[in-house]
Amino acid sequence: DAKTTQPNSMESNEEEPVHLPCNHSTISGTDYIHWYRQLPSQGPEYVIHGLTSNVNNRMASLAIAEDRKSSTLILHRATLRDAAVYYCILFSGGYNKLIFGAGTRLAVHP
Amino acid sequence: DAGVTQSPTHLIKTRGQQVTLRCSPKSGHDTVSWYQQALGQGPQFIFQYYEEEERQRGNFPDRFSGHQFPNYSSELNVNALLLGDSALYLCASSLVDRDTGELFFGEGSRLTVL
C-alpha cells in the first residue's frame, strides 16, 4: 500500500484558516486521496476525498498538487470543534479497507 | 437514521479472559469492519465481514475472531487476553456495492486488560 507522510502536530487559532499537508510521493494513478478526522473520544469520520481535481464540501476543501504527490486539507475558518487528529489515506478500491497512519493532531486555540 | 452503534462503551478484563464486543451497522449497510486503535496510534484493520463471512483480514492472530448475523450486526471476540490488547476497538460499516473508501465509524469500545 502506498504510504502518506503527515506532520505529527499543528496548531491554529480560532477563526483562522488551517492548511494540513500530506505527502504521498508513491501514489499510483488509481489511488484516491481520502481525509478522515477523529474528534476526542469518537471514531474517525469522513471529511473529503479526491482524485485529481480540487474538491470542496461543507466541511473542508482538498487541494491536490498537479503531480498528485502531495495534497492539502484546508479548513477555511477553524473552530474549537475542529481540534482532532486528521488522517490522510490513499485508497484504490478493495472492499473499503482503509490503512491509517498516525495522522496530524490539530490543536485550535481560542 | 441510526448511525453505527457499539457496546459496551468501556470494559475491564484480566489477562487470559475472553471478551465479546458488539456492533450494529448504519441503517442500510451490509458490511462491517473492525479496527483496533492503541493509545496515540491510528486505527489498525482487524477484519471485515460481509454475508456472514470474513472477507479479508489484517495482521492479527487467531485469538481475534468475529461473526456477522443475518441482520448485518457483528461481534468481535478476543480470546486469551493479553495486556497489549488494551485498546479502543472501532466498528465501521459500509455498503458492499459502494467501494468508495467512505466508512462510517462507531464511537468504539474501550477495552482495558489488567
Brief description of this entry?
The complex is a heterodimer of chains A (110) and B (114). Chain A has 110 residues and is mostly beta strands.
Description:
The complex is a heterodimer of chains A (110) and B (114). By secondary structure, chain A is mainly β. Chain A contains no helices and nine strands. Chain A has strands spanning 9-13, 18-23, 32-38, 45-50, 55-56, 61-64, 70-75, 84-91, 104-109. Chain A has a five-stranded mixed β-sheet with strand order 1-9-8-3-4, with no helix packed on it. A four-stranded antiparallel β-sheet of chain A has the order 2-7-6-5, with no helix packed on it. Chain A starts with 8 loop residues before the first strand and ends with a strand. Chain B has 114 residues and is an all-beta fold. Chain B has no helices and eleven strands. Chain B is globular and about 40 Å long. The interface between A and B is medium-sized, with 24 and 29 residues.
Mean pLDDT of chain B equals: 95
Structural class of chain A: mainly beta
Q: Please, what is the oligomeric state?
A: heterodimer
What low-confidence regions of chain A span 5 or more consecutive residues with pLDDT below 50? none
Question: What's the helix count of chain B?
Answer: 0
Task: Spell the H/E element sequence of chain A.
Answer: EEEEEEEEE
- With strands numbered from the N-terminus, the spatial order across the biggest sheet of chain A is 1-9-8-3-4
Cα-to-Cα separation, first versus last residue of chain B: 37 Å
Q: Give the count of helical stretches of chain A.
A: 0
Helix content of chain B: under 10%
